[in-house]
Amino acid sequence: MKKVIYISCLFLFYGCIFTYDPARGLLYVSNNSAEAVYVYLKYGDVDSLPLIPSAGLFTFIDVKMRDAYTIDGSRKKPRLPGNENEITLFIITEKMMNSYDLKEMHRNQIFAKKITLTKEELENRNWIITYP
């Protein structure tokens, strides 16, 4: 009888371990440049860098590193929140961040690169965005 209980428990745990899928999806941003960057993510197709009140709203990614944003969905099936179909990333180099204040970057639209991707493009890239 004990063997039957042990075997049943093993099958139960085996099924739980390999089917676990956390409730948050991840969007990875990799920095393959020679300089650290700051990334600002905005849902939707955004024409210009918005006025950002604090540098703390940027994600810092060092040289040859990557970071992850939590998004909706799960790890196996990430998705954009709500009815959003696009995301926009503004990449700002560390040199730019140290040379200009946030109001000046907004006023003069100072950033290294703007990346806008649709949900389909993100799926094709396995939810990984690489800069540059």
Tell me what you see in this structure.
- The chain is an alpha+beta fold and 132 residues long.
- It has a single domain, classed as Immunoglobulin-like (Sandwich).
- It has helices at 2-19, 94-99, 102-108, 119-124, and strands spanning 25-31, 37-43, 59-61, 65-73, 78-79, 86-93, 113-118, 128-131.
- The strands form 2 sheets. A 4-stranded mixed beta sheet has the order 5-4-1-8, with no helix packed on it. Strands 3-2-6-7 form a 4-stranded antiparallel beta sheet.
- Strand 4 and strand 5 form a beta hairpin.
- The longest helix has 18 residues, at 2-19.
- The N and C termini lie far apart (62 Å).
- The model has no long low-confidence stretch (mean pLDDT 90).
What's the gist of this structure?
This protein is α+β, with helices and mostly antiparallel strands. It has a single domain, classed as Immunoglobulin-like, CATH 2.60.40.
Give descriptors for this structure:
132 residues; alpha+beta; Immunoglobulin-like; 4-stranded antiparallel sheet; 4 helices
Number of structural domains: 1
Please state how the strands of the largest beta sheet are arranged side by side: 5-4-1-8
The name of the CATH topology is Immunoglobulin-like
Strand content: 25-35%
What is the approximate shape? elongated
**Per CATH, which architecture?**
Sandwich
